[in-house]
Amino acid sequence: MVQWTLIWAGIGAMMAASGALLGWVVFPRAVHEKVIENTELRQGTDQFKRWEALPQPLDFKVYIFNVTNPYEVMQGRRPKVVEVGPYIYFQYRQKDNIRFSRDRSKVHFSQQQIYVFDAESSYPLTENDELTVLNMHMNSILQIIDNQAKETITNFRSDVNNTLEKIPVVRVIKRIIERTTPIQVIPTNETYDSLRLINVELNRIFGRPDTMFLRTTPKQFLFDGVPFCVNVIGIAKAICKEIEKRNTKTIRTMPDGSLRFSFFSHKNMTDDGMFTINTGIKDPARTQMIELWNGRTSLDVWNNRSTGPSSRCNKIHGTDGSGYPPFRKEIEKMTIFSTDICRTVDIKLSGTSSYEGIPALRYEIDNNFVNEIGPEYGNDCYCVNKIPKSIVKSNGCLYRGALDLSNCFGE
Fold first, then answer.
1. Least buried of 240, 275, 328, 378, by fewest C-beta within 10 Å?
2. What residues does 270 pair with on adjacent strands?
3. What are the transmembrane regions (predicted)?
4. In the chain, what are the domain boundaries?
5. Could you report the per-residue pLDDT of 237-261, keeping only the tens digit for each?
């Protein structure tokens, strides 16, 4: 009897040891390997299909400041604004031009983005709400004209004179006038005359605006575009041609030759560059981390030192926000590279959550990425100061919540 007791005790001990081995070693390792298998990017797998085309769209939310007293502002009063939003759009992402490296550790691709208005989630707001906003394109163009007015008019006059000189009758008449008319010196202010002439032409370019503000809709302002430079001639046409030559992302040329301004039309149904990311096959901790963007590890958008490596502001790192490496523990922050604003942004741990009963960690964008900018934060490389006559702090940077994206938008 004692012998059988010892045998059963031995069997129990072996089963306990086996259970411990399975529970502490075999099963966790199997789960670990399964997680890696379902997160690394291999062609033909379910994860690759999910990565190639996100199974559900991302939410893209837009808030717009509506100016309620535009005419009072023109009289020198302080603007009154009301934040309207969110206007919510589905953002669909589709990977194209997919090509793997020879060792399959990296994958190159472009990513098309498509925006579709989500009327249900945006309700009661609609794309056709009438809003009064700052006339962004007119304000930007006036700043350009303020700096280049004399040059623009001088070039236009030179072009006209060169064209007239090619006409024989005009050359003859000009020579007769020169020989018969006494030389007179008339003092003029060419810059003043040029600006006065341009003021007249601005009405043709922008359709006789009565304020610096624009009455428009979210659909037009964000994607369809606000039209200007419609059926222009003469100097107005010359100015519009100069605007077109600048090749600004937010302004596009229409088939009839007119121009349109919008914030995001250049992002809709287009790709945002060529990415190279890590597949995670060799190093799961690098899964979907960006290795290159447009063949580079850094940008030339923000300020760099005269010598040495690129500044921290120009460094490209993190993911594109649609995926992350596995086995993320409660680390304080992760990083996303956003092509929309040409920079890396930190997302910080804000707490725990769950999805259909599965525990999860919740991360949110650290809003200080536009609030804490300056030499005291070690990131004054973001202070590009390309906006003419902008109000800046004593350290040379814009005030809290503002980021100069002139270089990013090619303006």
1. 378
2. 113
3. 6-27
4. 136-175+189-208+226-261, 298-408
5. 888 888 888 888 889 999 999 999 9
